[in-house]
């Protein structure tokens, strides 16, 4: 049985390792969890003893197959609860993360499988991130950052890189949500701001915004 803290570490390592071909440094883990490097070192020893991670000096931390599966199940619970909160309890997408952080530690596998069935086996959470199934399989989503989209090319918003409540609230103010049709009209050379078309209206946004929106083209 894993403690809450051990689960949080496994989930953090999982998120940090996405798209990485090398191990994750203890400093990166400490920065993500906002704790001391010494605390990370202590936890790494515990997880290593449980054969959930592998650690090599100067090469960082990697999840073992058992650790990867455990991390995916935590992510699965978190994202299923987010879907439930948004679809069934009408939470806004900027409100669900903190609540799901608490609910993801529920141990009942039967409850989570029934929740999955109740929701109709969703493959994505309210932020566009894939939900692992009961076997740990995840639907790969073909996506790119809006900043990578060619000018005059239309795409659909399918997710966010930054899921902080501040960013999601900003998107709500700009009427940008999953499914929004987006087109880059021009990039201002002076400050690298972007003139974009959202569905039927135009706005100017910063480079930071387009670097945190995921889109897909038809």
Notable traits:
218 residues, alpha+beta, Arc Repressor Mutant, subunit A, SH3 type barrels, 3 domains, six-stranded antiparallel sheet, two-stranded antiparallel ribbon, 8 helices, 8 strands, globular, manganese, protein dimerization activity, activator, DNA binding, Transcriptional regulator MntR
Summarize the structure.
The chain is α+β, with helices and mostly antiparallel strands and 218 residues long. Helices cover 41% and strands 17% of the residues. The protein is globular, with a radius of gyration of 19 Å.
- Distance linking N and C termini: 44 Å
CATH superfamily caption of the largest domain: Ferrous iron transport protein A (FeoA)
Mean pLDDT: 94
> Helix/strand-derived class?
alpha+beta
How are strands sequenced across the largest beta sheet? 3-8-4-5-6-7
Tell me the overall shape: globular
Give me the number of helical elements.
8
Rg? 19 Å
* Name of the level-1 CATH class of the largest domain: Mainly Beta
Under the CATH scheme, the architecture of the largest domain is Roll
Topology:
Blueprint: H1 4-17, H2 26-33, H3 37-49, E1 53-56, E2 60-63, H4 65-87, H5 96-103, H6 109-118, E3 144-145, E4 154-160, H7 165-173, E5 181-187, E6 194-198, E7 201-205, H8 207-210, E8 213-216
Antiparallel strand pairs: 1-2, 3-8, 4-5, 4-8, 5-6, 6-7
Task: Describe the protein in words.
The protein is of the alpha+beta class and 218 residues long. The chain folds into three domains: 4-63, Winged helix-like DNA-binding domain superfamily/Winged helix DNA-binding domain (Arc Repressor Mutant, subunit A, Orthogonal Bundle), CATH 1.10.10; 68-130, Winged helix-like DNA-binding domain superfamily/Winged helix DNA-binding domain (Arc Repressor Mutant, subunit A, Orthogonal Bundle), CATH 1.10.10.10; 144-217, Ferrous iron transport protein A (FeoA) (SH3 type barrels), CATH 2.30.30. Helices cover 41% and strands 17% of the residues. It contains eight helices and eight strands. The protein has a six-stranded antiparallel β-sheet. Strands 1-2 form a two-stranded antiparallel ribbon. Helix 1 crosses helix 2 (26-33) and helix 1 (4-17) crosses helix 4. The longest helix has 23 residues, at 65-87. It is globular and about 55 Å long. The model has no long low-confidence stretch (mean pLDDT 94). One of its GO terms (cellular component) is cytoplasm. It is found in: Cytoplasm. It holds the Pfam family FeoA. Homodimer. This is Transcriptional regulator MntR.
């Amino acid at each position: 049985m894993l403690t809450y803290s051990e689960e949080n570490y496994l989930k953090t390592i999982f998120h940090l390792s996405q798209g990485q071909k090398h191990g994750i440094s203890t400093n990166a883990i400490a920065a993500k969890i906002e704790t001391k490097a010494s605390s990370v070192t202590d936890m790494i020893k515990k997880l290593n003893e449980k054969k959930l991670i592998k650690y090599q000096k100067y090469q960082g931390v990697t999840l073992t197959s058992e650790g990867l599966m455990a991390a995916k199940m935590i992510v699965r619970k978190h994202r299923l609860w987010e879907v439930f909160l948004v679809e069934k309890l009408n939470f806004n997408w900027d409100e669900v993360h903190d609540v799901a952080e608490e609910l993801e530690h529920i141990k009942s596998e039967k409850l989570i499988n029934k929740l999955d069935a109740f929701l109709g086996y969703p493959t994505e959470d309210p932020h566009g991130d894939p939900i692992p199934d009961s076997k740990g399989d995840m639907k790969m989503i073909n996506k790119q950052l809006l900043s990578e989209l060619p000018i005059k090319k239309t795409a659909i918003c399918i997710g966010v890189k930054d899921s902080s409540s501040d960013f999601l609230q900003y998107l709500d103010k700009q009427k940008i949500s999953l499914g929004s049709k987006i087109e880059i009209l021009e990039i201002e050379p002076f400050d690298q701001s972007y003139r974009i078309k959202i569905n039927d209206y135009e706005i100017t946004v910063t480079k930071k915004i387009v670097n945190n929106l995921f889109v897909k083209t038809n």
